[in-house]
Design a protein that fits this description.
Helix 15 runs antiparallel to helix 17. Strand 12 and strand 13 form a beta hairpin. 57% of the residues lie in helices and 13% in strands. It has five domains: 217 residues, no CATH class; 173 residues, no CATH class; 40 residues, SH3 type barrels; 86 residues, Alpha-Beta Plaits; 91 residues, Alpha-Beta Plaits (2-Layer Sandwich), CATH 3.30.70.100. The N and C termini lie far apart (143 Å). The protein has 756 residues and is α+β, with helices and mostly antiparallel strands.
Length: 756
Amino acid sequence: MVPASFRRFLSFCAVALLTTCLTISLTAASSLASEDNDGSGEENVIEQVAPIIEIEQLQPIVRIDQQPFFDELKQFARFWDDSPIGHVEDISPKSTLLNFYAVMAKVGAEIEAIREDAKKDPGFGWSPGMKERIDDVDTLFGLAIKALNGSDFPESVRNDLVDEAAIELKLVLDYVFSNSRRKIEIPNLKGIRALNSDLVKKDVLTWRLPGTAIVLASNAEQEGNDWYFSPSTVSGAAKMFREIESVAEKLQGVPFATPDFYRNFIRTPGHLIPPKWYLTLPLWVHEIIEVEVFAGQTAFQLLSTTLVFVAYLIIVYLLVSRLVSSHVHYERVRAIGSAQDRLDGIWQEDEIAWQRVFLVLPILPLTLLCQVFVDDYLNFTGAPLVFTTYFFYVAGCFAACLFAFYFFESVGKSGAETLLRLRGIDSPQKLQRWGSRVQPICRALSGVAALFLVYRMLIQLGLPGSLVLALSSVPGLAIALGASKLLSNLFAGFSIQTDRPLRVGEFCRIGENLGFVTKIGLRSIEIQTHCSTVAIPNSIADDSIIMNYSDRQRLTGNSQHQGMELRMPISFSLTSAQVNQLLFFVNRYLESLEELSHTSLNVEQTKGGEMTLIGFGYGEFSTWDQYLELRKKIFVRFRQLIATVLMSRIILRVAYQTPESLRKRIPEDLKKIVLRDEQITFGSCELLKISDYSYDFIFDFRAFHPTYGIFLKAVDRINNDLLAYVEKENIVMPFPTSIFIQKPAELSDPRGVNPV
């Protein structure tokens, strides 16, 4: 036991030390405030401060029942006993303060009574009478917290932190009302206005509880406006409570004091009153599970929350894994599967999209359920509550953004498919076209929804509205600084969507890129070329020459008909008759093709004199495999027909000494030789040229053999018959003769150089 004299000595030393420190602090502050201050006011500060501290420390404690407002407090308490319906906030700070204190005292006392009576209440659930008492407690507590302005708290945790602040403020007031060394005078409204007369900003009236940081405020511009605990008071309630926590818990038996209110609130599950099953547990169980482990949370709360987090993460992981697998599997099928499989798979895209929607959807209620469970049932408080709430808010916002994206995408795909089904169209190309029109709109809507959700999340997490508004201007700033190309592509995309020079599935050439249109977006056009997929920005496509090879006007039906152009240079010198023959055979072949329709044929001659054969037609193909296969088939046949035309001309050169009678018979004999084949028609056979060494007979015919191989066999037969005819008739076929004249040796330059 410490002697009383020694305790008084320690108190005196503490007062002296405190006075000295305060004097030094005030002197330093004064010197920092003004360099011109000569320190003449130091003695006055000491004289003003020291006596106050000494008087405060030496004065006896004024208990709550000795305070001037105690009788009014009892009247307020009786009012709430008789009529539990009303307003805690009132037109004066005294009424608001005493109403709040009386209501919170009644709530705390009733909670203690219910906890004690729970052991007497039979069953594992609350009886109707106990439920009514609990509802009354919740009602009173709800009225009390309306007197607190919690606008400084983030919106996401505002309700929870205000509830906690109300209990903390109640215990702070327990301490202030029962440990004050002066009588607390609460002025009336007229006195409050006089106290605030010197304020620069007179739109808000304030009153501070003497000796505390508890401030009540009201809007002065409105007559009869209610008074509330200020935002700074509510946000600082936790700090004030930590300073007096150890003392406030010892106020047993003090009128209106509830020392166990906060401890029971944070250490037990449930909102205000724990569940019935929890209260019926043995005392030793409560002593174990209510041991504070971290940041005011008990072992039971931390363990339960950990289990909730683990279960939540496992379920989300499984759902997200399925979601990612759907994307990977779909992209793999598109990359490896055949072209027809990819086209047929377009009709299943809406099913896959809705599957993704239903994979993301469970995350939303699961996130909300976990948040409510941790908050309301496990009753997390303080910083751990803020952390868990922020986590679930961010996770929920992310899940909501995913849901919005997949939902609008599914709506777009299903809407396009439904419209085509109603019109009796089952073409994959048509579905791609409609999807390219609807999907950009749906994705824009999903982007707007996601942007709204993100901004709301930022506000919920406590970012000021001005900061969120400033963040909203970032996209505009980005557009102004570096997104001009994006805007150009967007406007060009709208122009392409409006003019519709291209549609999805059509075969076209954009600049130097030839391929099938697979996507028309707001930013770019995707073309599947022979080698790869090429993304062409809309601005470039809009400025380029677009050649659309698809027929839209003449062809009907749901099939996609694409134009095919084949250019084949002819390096051989052909006569006009051969050109006509070639055009005849090529045109005849094109018309016979089942894969092409509306064929046309033309011949162009370049500046160098080279002739180019140009064929065009519309074919039903939608993949590069089909296109290349048909192109190869036509190209090979064109080469065969050119060779057929070249070999359908026979030139027989006979010597000058050939008898005239034989010369006159040669055309008829050649005609007989050639026309032995029924699939060959006569053209002409005439002596068209007398060359330097021979008479040249030229015979033209047309061959209509079904295959090129049969034609070659026919040519072989004709050549053999012709050789036999020449041998039989003793026809001499002269060879060209060359004459070489050598200059005399004496005319040569002695140095070995011939003169010019």
